[in-house]
Write a sequence for this structure.
C-alpha cells in the first residue's frame, strides 16, 4: 500500500512510525515519531531542555519542538527553562511543615529581619546584610532548619574596610557562624567611612548572607506580603 502527498509516492508507514512527512529541496523527509510519554518524561518530569532531549534522542531541536507542539505539551518560557537547567533537581529549598512554637518564633524573627535588613530589589536572590553575627546566625538557622536549604547553597560575602585585617575578620565570622573560613568570600576592602578609623566602630566588616534562587526570593517576598509588605517597582540588576 502506498500513500501520496504533493505528487510524491512512498511506501506506507504506520502512524506510530511516521506522522510528519515534508518535502524539502525535492527530497522527501520522514520525521519519525517521538512518543508523547517519552517527551513528558524528559521535558516535564526530568525538566530537561529541548537541546538536552535532542542529544538524548539524536535528533534536531526543531524536531523536539515540533513534537512538543504536536502532543500539545506546553513549552516553558526562557526564564523557566534556565531555572530548570540550573536546578535539575527542582527547588533547592523545602519549607518545613508543622513548625513547633520555637520554630514559629524563628520563622517570624527571620522574616522580620529580612523585611528590615534584607536586600529585596534583586530578583535573583534573597540576601540579608548586617555587622552583627547574631543576626546573620539567626537568618542562617532559618535557612537551614525552616527552609531546609543545604549549606552549600547558602553564600557568605564579607565586606571589609581598609583598616580591617581580612583574615582576622574571616576567622571571626567563621567561628561565630560555625562555618569554614573558606566559605566566606571577600572583595577588595573599601575606604573607611566618616572621620577617623572605622576599625574603632566595625573591626570585622559587614557580612551578607544570601541564597541565589529566583523561586526562593519570590517565596520570601510572599512571606513579607502576608505581613503587609507592598513590593515597589525596582530594577532586577541592583
Amino acid at each position: 500500500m502506498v500513500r501520496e502527498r504533493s505528487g510524491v509516492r512512498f511506501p506506507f508507514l504506520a502512524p506510530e512510525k511516521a506522522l510528519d512527512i515534508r518535502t524539502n529541496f525535492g527530497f522527501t523527509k520522514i520525521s519519525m515519531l517521538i512518543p508523547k510519554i517519552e517527551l513528558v518524561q524528559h521535558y516535564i518530569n526530568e525538566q530537561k531542555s529541548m537541546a538536552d532531549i535532542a542529544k538524548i534522542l539524536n535528533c534536531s531541536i526543531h524536531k523536539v519542538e515540533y513534537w512538543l507542539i504536536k502532543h500539545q505539551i506546553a513549552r516553558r518560557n526562557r526564564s523557566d527553562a534556565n531555572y530548570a537547567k540550573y536546578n535539575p533537581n527542582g527547588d533547592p529549598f523545602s519549607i518545613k511543615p508543622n513548625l513547633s512554637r520555637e520554630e514559629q518564633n524563628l520563622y517570624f524573627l527571620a522574616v522580620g529581619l529580612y523585611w528590615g535588613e534584607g536586600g529585596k530589589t534583586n530578583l535573583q536572590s534573597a540576601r540579608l546584610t548586617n555587622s552583627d553575627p547574631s543576626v546573620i546566625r539567626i537568618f542562617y538557622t532559618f535557612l537551614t532548619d525552616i527552609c531546609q536549604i543545604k549549606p552549600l547553597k547558602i553564600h557568605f560575602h564579607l565586606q571589609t574596610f581598609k583598616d580591617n585585617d581580612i583574615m582576622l575578620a574571616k576567622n571571626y565570622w567563621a567561628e561565630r557562624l560555625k562555618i569554614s573560613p573558606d566559605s566566606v568570600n571577600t572583595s577588595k576592602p573599601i575606604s573607611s567611612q566618616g572621620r577617623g578609623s572605622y576599625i574603632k566602630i566595625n573591626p570585622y566588616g559587614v557580612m551578607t548572607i544570601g541564597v541565589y534562587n529566583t523561586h526562593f526570593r519570590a517565596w520570601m517576598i510572599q512571606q513579607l506580603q502576608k505581613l503587609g509588605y507592598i513590593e515597589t517597582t525596582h530594577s532586577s540588576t541592583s
